[in-house]
Specification:
This protein is of the alpha+beta class. It is about 30% helix and about 30% strand.
Length: about 60
């Protein structure tokens, strides 16, 4: 069973997550030749204080 893991900020809307799950699952199922029902996707949402880019938190603090 393939598992797709995405880590993102808590700014994703419910609709964006729904679309991401649908489209990513379709691509992985197609590329691996498995039924889409075999795909599990986990989305972990992080607060901006817990994300750093270029040595600085993206929250700006």
């Amino acid at each position: 069973m393939p598992v797709i893991t995405v880590e993102a900020s808590k700014t994703l809307s419910k609709e964006t997550k729904k679309q991401l799950i649908k489209e990513a699952s379709e691509v992985v199922a197609e590329e691996l030749g498995v039924p889409i029902q075999a795909i599990t996707m986990l989305i972990y949402e992080n607060t901006p204080d817990n994300i750093g880019v270029g040595g600085k938190p993206v929250s700006g603090e």
